[in-house]
Write a structure and sequence with these properties.
The complex is a heterodimer of chains A (295) and B (542).
Chain A lengths: L1 E7 L6 H10 L6 E5 L12 E4 L3 E4 L3 E5 L4 H9 L7 E5 L6 H10 L3 E11 L3 H4 L6 H9 L3 E5 L6 H14 L4 E4 L7 H4 L21 E6 L7 H9 L7 E8 L2 E8 L2 E6 L7 E7 L5 H9 L1
Parallel strand pairs in A: 1-6, 1-7, 2-5, 2-6, 7-8, 8-9
Antiparallel strand pairs in A: 3-4, 4-5, 10-14, 11-12, 11-14, 12-13
Chain B lengths: L1 E10 L7 E8 L2 E6 L1 H4 L5 E4 L6 E4 L1 E3 L5 H5 L3 E2 L5 E2 L5 E2 L5 H13 L8 E6 L11 H5 L7 E5 L4 E4 L1 H6 L23 E3 L1 H8 L13 H14 L1 E9 L3 H11 L7 E7 L5 H13 L5 E9 L29 H13 L4 E5 L2 H17 L8 E4 L5 H10 L2 E4 L1 H15 L1 H7 L3 H6 L4 E3 L10 H10 L16 H15 L17 E4 L16 E6 L2 E4 L1
The chains are: A alpha/beta (295), B alpha/beta (542).
């Protein structure tokens, strides 16, 4: 099963910057990126190893392909690749509705949607949402989000940032908001294919972005996996992501959450019980969640 | 060698010489129009009297069609209205789902290859109280072959179980807005939107590139043009891969290909710069019968699909606003670059908000780069109001209105999509002409049948399928309608210096008619019998 992250948001929010950040920090994980068309600079030049009309090869085994409006065919083609990628990222066009793209991805056997990430420009997003023409489209994008990356947070005063966060909380109550600068966020926050080790979130590599906090939680008592997943995805708890394995009456189950999206699936044979929970520092309360889990 | 065609009457569309009896042709061009004794001075000639009892008009110009209709005719016709195929056979309209199943079954029995798919087209559930053709219905036609029918709107297809199974979709738990589920938890067989239709459609023989015709389809489309009196036609949204461009240039260049085709490069899937560069390359490959280099942009969806972008008060039934197919920034970039490179852009707008965006975007682009005679054209532009037409006039824009839509879906617009008042203003031909906006009217074939004379009747009468006159005020005269399907459409394509009227110097392109459409009354029909065409001096009988 190939996990798919869908990255949406309006022009200029930082989608391309985010994609480049993810590729730059791939660290051996083979990421395939699908873009609607190769824009002026879809991939930073120093990352490119080779390029033809439809495919850019990137250092470390990653690739970027343009799908020219035939997304489903591009997905079917990926299934035929000799070396399957570890994770797929779809960068949507500016007016695309990510939920529709997630729907198409989920139809095809072999793919599962990991999460919808909407990149929003902290400075302009509120004004864009008022635009006569594209305002309602932008609102629908935000409502489709599991994670909203409130980008360019360093360019606005704290009061403005707080105001936008409060507004987003009303606009898209189930999404997890993450403030960033230069779309800088650890891969493991956005993509479940990356291991969630606590040290990933120390923030040491994030000179501009507020750090993330994570906690590993042992989990031994049998539970209702759906109920645990729902609790972890409850926006009140402020988690960006949670991942792990929990024991149930029917055996070990895998839990994945990203923002308000959650999934419970079969656990692999070698899985061991335990959860990792992640929140942006100062947003989520890991102690509280750990306490809830301990009950 | 000069041929002088003799006709009962030649309607020239040239006001200086509106009628004639003879037209002299040399090397595919008109050298003179008038009485025989005005033409003999050109020298040695032959008088061809085979049209002595016919009416000649300028070859008709269809400004918005898709050549893929030629390919669709190899699928089974399932439409509600009678329709004539490329070989002249009339397929009776089907008045119920039972009749659709009978026709599909009949087509199934005529297939030799047991694995061959069974594709159908032009089903319109609006006429069956919106009852859908389900998997079970189609199972009556075949359970062993993949089968599917494209709906008239082309944005929905219905499939049988075999087709769904081949695409891996016949399973429970599908969660997608474009895939309705039945009581059994399995997809009903109806799939909405290209993302979903395409992967299933390829198992049923529907082309992956919905907009492309193939070689035989293009030749068949040429036959449809002859039957409709059309000598210049558009292929309005072509991706034009090298392979398709090579094929279209070759086939239209064949000695017996009967029409001039103007294909517009579709904007999607490319950056603005890539689009412009491709259009410039294509423009250099233009031939007499294959005109390339123009660009087609789509701003929004369709009104009956509730995907058109509407201003207040929005959809009559309360549906949420539709979808943008382009960002305003992207549209601006295309307009800027096209103006700078002298490329023609036609923009599809259905809802009035999409029209407003195109108007404002072009206004900004023209402020930045004032351009004479750009002829940017709004295609469909169905809901534009009077203020928008005035703005179009100021900006030097052209419009191509979807007059046929009134007949086929006017009742639906009145009752469901936009309500009575706005349904009456849709495709406001009279308002466009009152503002002196160059105007064409169109069929959007295969959405509705290619036939400019019928399209003219629609614009003159504005009658719906149920007989309601929808927007009496916007009706136009027969003379204005005939102008719209000749010079009007030609102007929007920058071809009015070459075609669209019968006068010296223009291509010898004629529609050969059995009766005189100018003598029709609005109550009778302007879509008189078509004998065939003359294109570039070559004679084609329908």
């Amino acid at each position: 099963m190939l996990s798919v992250s869908i990255i949406g948001g309006y022009l200029g929010a930082g989608k391309t910057t985010l994609v480049n950040t993810l590729l730059r920090n791939a660290n051996g994980t083979r990421i395939a990126v699908l873009v609607n068309e190769f824009g002026a600079l879809p991939i930073d030049e120093d990352l490119i190893e080779a390029q033809d009309d439809a495919l850019i090869s990137i250092a470390g085994g990653c690739v970027c392909c343009s799908y020219g409006n035939d997304l489903v065919q591009a997905l079917l083609d990926i299934l035929k690749w000799d070396h399957a990628p570890d994770h797929l990222v779809i960068e949507c066009s500016g007016v695309a509705l990510p939920a529709a793209i997630a729907g198409s991805v989920s139809l095809i056997d072999g793919f599962q949607v990991d999460g919808v990430v909407i990149v929003a420009d902290a400075e302009t997003i509120k004004a864009q949402a008022e635009d006569t023409y594209v305002g309602d489209t932008i609102e629908r994008q935000l409502q489709d989000a599991d994670i909203i990356l409130l980008n360019k947070a360093d360019l606005v005063p704290q009061a403005h940032l707080d105001d936008v966060k409060a507004w987003l909380g009303k606009m898209s109550p189930s999404a997890s908001g993450v403030a960033t600068s230069h779309a800088h966020v650890p891969n493991s926050v956005l993509m479940q294919s990356f291991d969630h080790r606590p040290e990933d979130f120390s923030g040491a590599d994030l000179s501009h972005a507020p750090a993330f906090a994570s906690r590993a939680i042992p989990f031994h008592a049998p539970c209702d996996a759906d109920a645990v997943a729902q609790m972890l995805a409850d926006p009140q708890n402020g988690l960006v992501r949670a991942k792990g394995f929990v024991p149930t009456a029917g055996g070990l189950r895998a839990i994945q959450t990203v923002g308000g999206r959650w999934a419970v699936t079969d656990a692999p044979a070698d899985a061991r019980p335990g959860l990792v929970i992640i929140a942006q520092a100062g947003v989520g309360d890991l102690d509280r969640v750990a306490q809830l889990l301990a009950v | 060698m000069i041929t002088i065609f003799q006709a009962k009457k030649i309607i020239t569309m040239n006001p200086a010489r509106p009628q004639a009896t003879h037209v002299a042709v040399r090397d595919g061009r008109i050298i003179g129009v008038g009485h025989l004794d005005e033409l003999t001075g050109w020298g040695e000639h032959r008088v061809d009297a085979q049209f002595a009892d016919k009416i000649l008009m300028p070859g008709l110009v269809e400004g918005h069609a898709h050549t893929m209709e030629g390919t669709l005719w190899r699928h089974t016709y399932c439409g509600y209205f009678d329709r004539v195929d490329p070989d002249g056979k009339t397929w009776q309209g089907l008045k119920g789902i039972d009749a659709v199943i009978v026709r599909l079954k009949d087509a199934e029995q005529r297939l030799d290859d047991p694995a061959a798919p069974l594709p159908g087209w032009q089903l319109d559930p609006i006429y069956f109280n919106n009852e859908r053709v389900t998997r079970e219905d189609q199972a009556q036609a075949s359970t062993t072959r993949p089968a599917g029918v494209t709906l008239a709107s082309v944005h929905i297809k219905n499939f049988n179980s075999k087709a769904l199974d081949l695409a891996g979709l016949l399973k429970p738990g599908v969660n997608h807005p474009g895939v309705p589920l039945g009581a059994d938890g399995l997809p009903t067989g109806e799939l909405k939107g290209p993302d979903i239709m395409t992967p299933v459609g390829v198992h049923v023989g529907f082309d992956r590139d919905m907009l492309a015709c193939d070689e035989r389809g293009l030749r068949d489309f040429g036959k449809l043009c002859v039957r409709a009196g059309v000598t210049t036609v558009t292929d309005l949204a072509a991706r034009m891969s090298d392979e398709v461009a090579d094929m279209m240039i070759r086939v239209t260049g064949e000695p017996l290909f009967p029409a001039r085709v103007l294909a517009m490069r579709f904007f999607q899937g490319l950056t603005a710069r890539e689009l412009i560069d491709h259009a410039i390359l294509l423009r250099a490959r233009s031939t007499d019968r294959m005109r390339l280099g123009a660009i087609k942009v789509i701003a929004d969806g369709s009104i009956q699909g509730f995907s058109a972008r509407m201003r207040a008060p929005g959809y009559y039934n309360g549906a949420p606003n539709g979808l943008w197919y382009i960002t305003p920034e992207h549209m601006r970039e295309i307009y800027d670059l096209a103006l700078a490179n002298d490329l023609l852009v036609h923009t599809h707008t259905n809802g009035d908000q999409a029209t407003q965006l195109a108007l404002e975007t072009l206004e900004k682009a023209l402020d930045h780069r004032p351009t004479q005679d750009h002829r940017f054209t709004l295609q469909h532009c169905q809901l534009a109001d009077a203020a928008q037409f005035r703005q179009m006039a100021k900006l030097g824009m052209c419009v191509n209105l979807f007059a046929n839509h009134h007949f086929y879906w006017g009742d639906e617009h009145y009752a469901l999509t936009v309500g009575p008042e706005r349904a009456e203003r849709m495709n406001a031909c009279r308002t466009a002409l009152a503002n002196n906006i160059p105007m064409g009217i169109h069929s959007d074939a295969p959405i509705t049948p290619l036939g400019p004379l019928f399209t003219a009747w629609c614009a003159v009468n504005r009658k719906t399928a149920s007989g309601r006159i929808l927007g009496e005020h916007e009706r136009i005269s027969i003379q204005d309608a005939l102008y719209a399907i000749t010079l009007g459409a030609a102007y929007t394509l920058k071809l009015d210096g070459e075609v669209g009227s019968v006068e010296a110097g223009k291509h010898a392109d004629f529609a050969v008619l059995e009766e005189d459409p100018t003598e029709a009354t609005p109550a009778s029909r302007t879509d008189v019998g078509v004998w065939g065409t003359v294109q570039g001096g070559r004679i084609f009988a329908a």
